Amino acid sequence: SIRLWDVNTGKQKTKIDSGFKVNTVCFSSDGTTLASGCEYYSICLWDVKTKNQKAKLGDLNNNFRSICFSPYGMLLAYGSADKYISLEDVKTRQQKAKLVGHTSYVQSLCFSLDSSTLASGGGDKSILLWNVQTGKLKAKFDGHSGTIYSVNFSPDGTTIASGSEDKSIRLWDIRTGQQKAKLDGHSSQVNSICYSPDGTTLASGSDDNSIRLWDVKKGQQKAKLDGHCSKVFSVKFSPDGTKLASCGDSLIRLWDVKSVLTNNLLQENATTGITTLLISQNPNFDTQGALILKGEFVNHYGVDLKSLIKSKGGCILESQIELQQN
């Protein structure tokens, strides 16, 4: 089945019974149509409002692994286990082009924002770039040692990111065809990657149960999100970039991107060398029952607040430990 969820309430809005195992889904740019790719069946187009099937595309008894609407909603691309990619005119339901070039199944597809280029990746470990207008191959990127499960264009169209079975994420310069960066950190295959709308951050989901956020410019990990107890199959930023959705272990989780990055920064800075806590100007706090191992506690005037902490019910263990040692 296919389920649609209200992001604000977290409640299910709609359930569409497709009758077959669904491998992949994709919304049209205007949000009125949903495409689904089923295992050993076909591509179905659904009216989001009525839940009725609008059309059926593709060959029956095929295994459709990836589908993608063009940003302007005029074209639908889908890839299958038969190694080819089909470009369909959404309005006329006619095939515009059949792209042949992969030597194994097609696992992932992504249009550039201007709809001029289609990227594809799959079981042959290669990334192919296609001219959408002519249907001809523009470029081929090789470097991964395993199946490519996800490809994604940067918002400015200069870079293509790829996630693979080989546990790595790679960034490719579209103009030169050269690898710009290799992002290592996942301990198992990378199933999904997604650029943030501003292009500064790349999210990735993996079989290692984790989600990671990467600084694209520096090529470094910004944050690691743990919460799923099984494989993370897909990650997607909200259009405004403030939320990240992830799915795995039969759950969909929504993450607040800003708080995740802030919390990660605090964790990175919370080393044993930092023992100072700066209290706000209005120290209205309750430390009843708190056990504090060690630290320096001052207000903005530099006044020592240890006596205040003790009077509020807190216990600083540092002095007791020193007495025991002496």
TrEMBL record:
It comes from the Eukaryota. PANTHER family: WD REPEAT DOMAIN 5B, WD40 REPEAT PROTEIN. WD repeats lie at residues 99-140, 141-182, 183-224, 225-259. Pfam families: WD40. InterPro entries: Quinoprotein_ADH-like_sf, WD40/YVTN_repeat-like_dom_sf, WD40_PAC1, WD40_repeat_CS, WD40_rpt. GO terms for cellular component: transferase complex. This is Uncharacterized protein. Keywords: Repeat, WD repeat.
